[in-house]
From TrEMBL:
<feature type="domain" description="GP-PDE">
    <location>
        <begin position="59"/>
        <end position="325"/>
    </location>
</feature>
<protein>
    <submittedName>
        <fullName>Glycerophosphodiester phosphodiesterase</fullName>
    </submittedName>
</protein>
<dbReference type="InterPro" id="IPR017946">
    <property type="entry name" value="PLC-like_Pdiesterase_TIM-brl"/>
</dbReference>
<dbReference type="InterPro" id="IPR030395">
    <property type="entry name" value="GP_PDE_dom"/>
</dbReference>
<dbReference type="Pfam" id="PF03009">
    <property type="entry name" value="GDPD"/>
</dbReference>
<dbReference type="GO" id="GO:0008081">
    <property type="term" value="F:phosphoric diester hydrolase activity"/>
</dbReference>
<dbReference type="GO" id="GO:0006629">
    <property type="term" value="P:lipid metabolic process"/>
</dbReference>
Length: 327
């Protein structure tokens, strides 16, 4: 009887040892080669003004706390997008807001009071009314003593149509900033008119409800929401060690906080290879994911990434980060 128990324990021990060895080998980046190409660089809102992140909340007017301007660009405008592309951006993130006449304009805030000389919400104004506003009106670096962009940014709020037309080959990450299901339906109506080749260059992310509505209409579009991100990360945590990826993890986008990334099975190279095979784009964001617009904006930030990291990087300072990769 003791011999049988000993044999059973021995087989069980060997089983777990072999299983642990399999998990290690199957998830070690030591055995996962990556290409030598530079990381994909995502320029958040193009190239815009920087601001202090200290004590910032969702309703903080960031235009009132900008740093001394280093360049003449305002976020989410055609000049700022063009500057980001010229600086080396592979992908540009833009924010969309609905208008009264069922259009989309490129603008970060759902209210106008912070940045412009208008008041209220974008959806209460027509496209022409919004474009007549001065979107540089509220920017100040010295607590309201001077306004360096006031009077210089009238007619600079573009429509989504104008941006996609001006940059016909540029990949964009489109941000729906509400939880309104109707915005997802409106976006689907708009995107359905675009050729398949253009849709392949676009990704849409945002609130759970609009993204769910959008995916229902355009299942082949690359999308992401908080709900899909959480679901996919939980699934990967549970079964990713096997190398198997379910359908929900294919042809999507994952924004991975840098402090979460090291805990993912196979991080970095094995994980990135798996996501490449699943046609899922990986973008690393700074911190633990709770920060406001947190990006890799300095050379010191980049040094925290694995030396051979070749996934995507979220940055607010494409002008500072692209040169580090000779872009």
């Amino acid at each position: 009887m003791n011999k049988i128990k000993g044999l059973f324990k021995s087989k069980t021990t060997w089983f777990f040892l072999i299983l642990l060895l399999f998990i290690y080998v199957n998830n070690s980046s030591l055995f996962a080669k990556r290409g030598e190409g530079a990381p994909l660089l995502l320029a958040h809102r193009g190239l815009g003004q920087t601001f202090s992140m200290e004590g910032i909340e969702n309703d903080t007017c960031t235009a009132e706390r900008i740093n001394e301007p280093e360049y003449p660009f305002l976020e989410n405008t055609i000049p700022s997008i063009e500057a980001a592309i010229n600086a080396g951006a592979d992908l540009v993130e833009i924010d969309v807001q609905p208008t009264k006449d069922h259009n989309f304009v490129i603008f970060h805030d759902w209210t106008l009071d912070c940045r412009t000389n208008g008041q209220g919400v974008t959806r209460d104004y027509t496209t022409s009314e919004l474009q007549a506003l001065d979107i540089g009106y509220g920017y100040t670096a010295d607590e309201g003593k001077t306004f360096p962009f006031r009077g210089k940014a009238v007619n600079l709020m573009p429509t989504l149509d104008e941006v996609l037309g001006y940059f016909p080959k540029t990949p964009f990450l489109i941000h729906i900033k509400s939880e309104d299901q109707n915005e997802g339906i409106q976006m689907a109506n708009y995107l359905e008119k675009l050729p398949e080749s253009r849709l392949e260059q676009l990704t849409v992310y945002g609130g759970d409800q609009p993204i769910a509505a959008l995916r229902e209409r355009l299942s082949n579009l690359r999308t992401m929401s908080k709900a899909t991100l959480k679901k996919n990360l939980l699934i990967y945590t549970a079964i990713g060690w096997t190398g198997y990826l379910p359908a929900s993890l294919k042809h999507g986008q994952l924004h991975i906080p840098e402090k979460v990334a090291p805990w993912l099975w196979g991080w970095p190279n094995r994980f990135l290879n798996r996501m490449d095979n699943a046609d899922t784009r990986v973008i690393v964001v700074e911190g633990n994911g709770s920060g406001f617009s947190s990006g890799f904006d300095t050379s010191a930030d980049i040094k925290r990434l694995p030396e051979d990291y070749s996934g995507g990087i979220w940055t607010n300072r494409i002008d500072k980060i692209a040169p580090l990769y000779n872009k």
